[in-house]
Amino acid sequence: MREGRPPGSYGIDAPYVPAIFLALAALSIVLALLITASLFVTAGVFLACALSYLYATLRGKFVGWNRILNGWRGDPPSRLLDVGCGRGAVSVLVARHFPETEVVGLDLWRSRDQSGNSVEAAERNASEAGVEGRIAFETGDMAEMPFPDDSFDAITASISIQNVKDRELRRRVISEMLRVARPGARIAIVDIQYTAQYEADLEVLGADAVERKRLGPGLWFGTPFTAGTLVSAAAPASPVSADPAAGSAG
Ligand SMILES: C[S@@+](CC[C@H](N)C(=O)[O-])C[C@H]1O[C@@H](n2cnc3c(N)ncnc32)[C@H](O)[C@@H]1O
């Protein structure tokens, strides 16, 4: 199945970023009027960055994840975890894409990371999209997931792990993903930063078929230097220790 943005309201990721681009565009226009007209070019560049970012967060993210899900071969997952689900963009997309899949969204609902972020907003979106019966949203830290080992046969994370700023904690998130994943579970992470670290951590922790791929202009989040990148992998066939010291990447 292929679809666009599902019904609902999914907010803006890190809303301060496009606000900064717009403020810089406005400042450049003022300076262009006061000092030199050549600064209109600078204003245009900042405006283009803001528009690119808004496109990525409001539309490109959904197009990109639809492509990722369309590329999944074999049986659909029976139980999928969406790590840092926010208002449920990818959780809802997955539930609509795979009509038999049970989805769990995990988040701490930080409004700095997504505008209007709350469990109520996520539940409202699931309901508007008609998938509320197959999604459960849980409050918890992705670095200490409230799930037993071997709970999920697919895991997604969309622009979420990068919000964990501490390197060791990000390593722990990857380790936690592998702990709660069933052997062979699909893993798909899209982020702007730190994707080389995720790739290295997954490899060190024994994941199979680890690949990293830059996504297209629809997911540039403002500039080509802030492009969304997909890290995909399969969980190892044997169980993984939750101890992040087990790996030493990066
Ligand atoms: C930019 S939003 C992306 C949300 C969603 N995945 C999407 O694509 O729309 C990042 C999300 O990560 C969540 N987050 C940040 N740190 C977290 C943590 N340690 N544990 C769980 N969620 C976290 C934030 O609350 C936020 O909802």
Descriptive overview:
- By secondary structure, the protein is an alpha/beta fold.
- The chain has 2 domains: 37 residues, no CATH class; 189 residues, Rossmann fold (3-Layer(aba) Sandwich), CATH 3.40.50.150.
- The chain contains 6 helices and 7 strands, in the order ααβαβαββαβαββ.
- The protein has a 7-stranded mixed β-sheet with strand order 3-2-1-4-5-7-6, with helices on both faces.
- β4, α5 and β5 form a beta-alpha-beta unit.
- α1 runs antiparallel to α2 and α2 runs parallel beside α3.
- The radius of gyration is 19 Å and the shape is globular.
- The C terminus is likely disordered.
- The structure holds S-adenosylmethionine.
- S-adenosylmethionine (SAM) binds next to α3 and β2.
- The site of S-adenosylmethionine (SAM) has 25 residues, from α3 and β2.
List key phrases describing it:
single chain, 250 residues, alpha/beta, Rossmann fold, 2 domains, 7-stranded mixed beta sheet, 7 strands, globular, binds S-adenosylmethionine
Listing every helix as H and every strand as E from the N terminus to the C terminus, the arrangement reads HHEHEHEEHEHEE
Biggest sheet character? 7 strands, mixed
CATH architecture of the largest domain: 3-Layer(aba) Sandwich
Helix share bin: 25-40%
Molecular shape: globular
Strand count: 7
Strand content: 15-25%
Strand order of the largest sheet: 3-2-1-4-5-7-6
Hetero ligands: S-adenosylmethionine
Look at the structure and name the CATH superfamily of the largest domain: Vaccinia Virus protein VP39
> Unreliable segments (pLDDT under 50, ≥5 consecutive)?
246-250
Q: What is the residue-averaged pLDDT?
A: 94
Straight-line distance between termini:
38 Å
Classify the oligomer: single chain
- Could you please say which CATH topology of the largest domain applies here? Rossmann fold
User: In DSSP terms, counting alpha (H) and pi (I) runs of 4 or more, how many helices?
Assistant: 6
Structural class of the secondary structure composition? alpha/beta
CA-atom Rg in angstroms: 19 Å
Domain unit count = 2
State the name of the first-level CATH class of the largest domain. Answer: Alpha Beta
